[in-house]
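Hello K.,

You asked for the raw outputs rather than the summary table, so here they are, unedited. I folded two proteins back to back in the same session to keep the settings identical. This is the first:
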Amino acid sequence: MGVIKDNTGKIREQCQELILSDKQIEEIMRRLLKEINKGLNKATHPEADIKCFITYVQDLPNGKEKGKFLALDLGGTNFRVLLIHLKDENDFEMVSKIYAIPQSIMLGSGTQLFDHIAECLANFMKEHSVYEEKLPLGFTFSFPLTQLGLTKGILARWTKGFNCSGVVGEDVVQLLKDAIARRGDVQIEICAILNDTTGTLMSCAWKNHNCRIGLIVGTGSNACYVERVDNCEMFDGPKDPNKKHVLINTEWGAFGDNGMLDFVRTEYDREIDHFSINPGRQIQEKMISGMYMGELARLAIVKFTRAGLLFGGVGSDILFKRGQFFTKYVSEIESDKPGTYMYCRDVLDELGLEHATDEDCANVRYICECVSSRAAHLVSAGIAALINKMDEKSVTVGVDGSVYRFHPKFHDLMKAKIRQFVKPDISFDLMLSEDGSGRGAALVAAVACREAH
C-alpha cells in the first residue's frame, strides 16, 4: 500500500501551488484596492486594469415600483426575454423565454446579432399579447461597457466567446434601437442598459434594502458596488446634490492583466490563458469562473496522469482533449459524501476512465477541491476588500451565477473567508439572487421610469 499512498502525498504536495495562503489573500486584497482606485481616478483610468465603469444607476429600488416592463438579458451563449409585472412590494408576475444564440451569430456581424435579438423580442411580445403596447425595457448586456449615461453604453471589448464585428466602440443601445427600427413592428422604450452584476444588485435590493454589492460567479466573474460620487472622477454630466452614491461596475475579471496576479498563477493558469480566445486578458476571471474551472482541473489531472501518479499512468482520449472536463463535473465530484465516490465514478466513466481506483477518485476530488477553493478564496478577497472600502456597518452581497448556485461548497467557503478578512465590526450576508439579471433589468427600467415621471 505504501506506493499508492506515496502517489497521494506527491499529488498533494504538487497541488500546494493551488492553495492561497492568508498572507497571499491579504496581498491580493491590497493590490485589488489599489487597482480599483486607479480605475476610479481620471488620471490613472486609461491604464487601469479594473476599469470601474460608472453605471449612472443612482437609485436603488424602494419597493414602490409598479407596472409592466420588458427585460432583455444577453450575457452568454443564450439570452432571455422577460415580461415583468410589478404589482406592489414583493409581489410580481414574470414570464420569460430563453433563446439560443448560434455560434455563427456569436462570431458573425453585429447587425446579425441585433437583428436576431430584435426578432426574438418581437416574437416574444406577440406570444404574450403585448405586441401593441409601448413598454419600457431594461437591457442587461453583460460585457465590458463604458457607460455615458443610463441609456448609452459603448462596448469596450467582447468576452465569453463572443466576437461580433462592428460592435466594439459602438453604443449597443443604438444598435438595438436600429435593429428594432429596421423591423418597424414593435414599440419599445429602452430605459436603461446595465450589466448582470448591476441587475443582481438591483434584484436583491428590491427585497433587501441593505444590498450594496452585486456579484456574479458563473461563466464569467464580476462585481459591482455602491461608491460615493465624490470618489468617482469619471462621473460625467450633471451631478444631483441629493444623490451621493452611484453604482460602479468594476469589471474585475481583468484584474491581473498587468501582472498583478502573477505571484499566485500556476502553469495551468498560463496554459488556459495561452489557448483562450483573449490571451493576456481577463486573468482573474480565468482563475475563477465556470468557463475555465473544469479545464483547470483537467490540466492538473492530465499532468498527474502523465507523471504516472493517477490512473496507473493510463489516461483516455476524452481526458486528453481540451475542454472535455466540464465545470459541472467539479461540482458533481465534490457533492459525494466523504469517502464515497458515486458521482466521481460516473464522471470518470464518462471520460473513459473506468479503471480508476478509490485512491484515484480521492485524488481527483482533492484536485477539484483545490481548484474550486482557490476560486472561492479569490472571490472572497475581492468582496472583503469592497466591504472594507465601503465601510458600512451591515452589507448584503447579492450573488448570482452557476458556479455559486450549483457548487456544493462555494457559499460556505466564501462566507468563512470573507468573515476572516472583513473588519470585525462589520456584519455581512450573502444572498442568492432569485433570477437576478432579468428582474434587475426590469427594476432598473422601473426606477428610471419612477424618476422620469
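The second followed immediately with the same parameters:
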Amino acid sequence: MAAAPGSAMDSLSAALKCNIIPNQEYLLQGSVLDQYVEILLHRLRGLCDNVDSGPESFHDHELSFTLRAQGTGSAPMVLPLRVRRALDLPDSPWQLRYVGQQELGDKNRPTIVRSSIDMACSSSVVEFLTELGCRMDFEYIARGYMFRKGRMKITVSKIFKMGNMNSKPGEGVEPISQSYLVELSVLAPTGQDAIAEDMRVFAEQLKPLVQLEKIDYKRLGTMP
C-alpha cells in the first residue's frame, strides 16, 4: 500500500534533518585539447576504480530550462532546471535536475559547492515543464566517458551543437570546440566539506594534462 502524502513528507523532512539526502554538489571543471584526451583517459584508467572493466561511456541529450517567478523583492526568482536523457539507452528513465547558485562561502574553499537535486522521471517531463511556464534556454549533446574514484565522479565529454530542426538528437551535430570538458564532482549531504579536499588532491594528480578549478559563473554571466 502506498504511503499517505503526509507520512511521505514527514519521511522526507526527517531525512533532510538527518543529512542523509545528497543535496549538495562539489564541483571542479577544466578542459583538455582533443590531441591529449587519450593520454588523460589512460591516466584516469590508472587512477580510478574498476581498472579492468574500463570507463563507462555515455551519449546524452541535455536541455536547460528556467522558470521565472516573482520573488519577495523586486527582482524575479529564477529556477534553473536540467533535463537529460541517454540516447544510447532509450529505455532508461529521463533525469530532471535542479542546480542552484554556488555558495558564497570561503573563497579559499577547494571546490564549488552548490545545491543539487536529481530525480528520475518519464519522457513527458519536457511537456510538463513547458506547461508550468518554463522556458528552454539551450540544448546540447554530450558524448564521452565516466570514471569513478570512491564517491568522486569524473566525466570527460565532448559537447556538440544540435543539428537542424529536422534532425534527430545525436544526428547532424557539430562539436563546439576542439577540446573536451572535464568535470570532477561529488553529490553529498549537507556539511561534508572534507570531500572537497579529497577532490583537490585528486585533481593535482591530473596536472599538467588538465587544470581542474572553480569556475566563477557570476563573472561569466551564465549558468553551467
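The chain has a mean pLDDT of 84.

Happy to rerun anything if the numbers look odd on your end.

Regards,
P.
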